[in-house]
Specification:
There is one protein chain. This protein is an alpha/beta fold. The chain has one domain: Peptidyl-tRNA hydrolase (Rossmann fold, 3-Layer(aba) Sandwich), CATH 3.40.50. Helix content is about 35%, strand content about 20%. The chain has a 7-stranded mixed sheet with strand order 2-3-4-1-5-7-6, with helices on both faces. Helix 2 runs parallel beside helix 3 and helix 5 (about 155-175) packs antiparallel against helix 6. The chain is globular and about 45 Å long. The chain starts with a strand and ends with a helix.
């Protein structure tokens, strides 16, 4: 069971609904299901929602700087990397696919790299949510910072719900069971 759940993305209304903010969308869905309220946490800096078994954290920094916030929470709350789950988008996975892992390399994801570098470990769980594939001749930064097309919305919404289900399965049955049920 994870006690700190981080949804990575970019802050501000200009990034709301973009591909790079899928981690935040999943976090918001889980918090909504649990009827949790968000409050600012200045020392984070982040918004947090406190559940019965976990603290949900939305860092107020850009994706590539998320590790600083994760480290602050780990230190302040005296947690270990194994106590956290980080939810992110993943360009390497097709839209609608999920990949849950108990640890591992960043795979080129700068948010995950930021977390691993800041906490000095790759031994933290991550739930990757597919946003790919990257279309030919489209810049990666432009693609991840773009909003989803109208025809992608139903698939996106289904994936976000399944990602929230995967998180709940992790908390109830453990990561191994959740991986067997939800990994692509």
């Amino acid at each position: 069971m994870f006690s700190l759940i981080f949804g990575l993305g970019n802050p501000g209304p200009e990034y709301r609904g973009t591909r790079h903010n899928v981690g935040l969308m999943v976090l918001e869905t889980v918090a909504r299901r649990q009827k949790l309220s968000w409050r600012p946490e200045r020392w984070g800096p982040a918004y947090v929602a406190e559940g019965q078994q976990a603290l949900f954290i939305s860092p107020l920094c850009y994706m590539n700087e998320s590790g600083v916030v994760v480290r602050k929470f780990l230190q302040r709350l005296r947690k270990k990397p194994e106590d956290i789950l980080v939810i992110v988008d993943d360009i390497a996975l097709p839209l609608d696919k999920l990949r849950l892992r108990p640890g591992g390399a960043s795979g080129g994801h700068r948010g995950l790299l930021s977390v691993a570098t800041a906490i000095g470990s790759e031994a933290f769980a991550r739930l990757r949510c597919g946003i790919g594939p990257l279309p030919r001749s489209v810049d990666l930064a432009d693609f991840v910072l773009a909003r989803f097309c109208e025809d992608e919305r139903p698939v996106l919404e289904s994936m976000i719900e399944r990602a929230a289900d995967a998180f709940e399965c992790c908390q109830e049955c453990g990561i191994e069971v959740a991986m067997s049920r939800f990994n692509a």
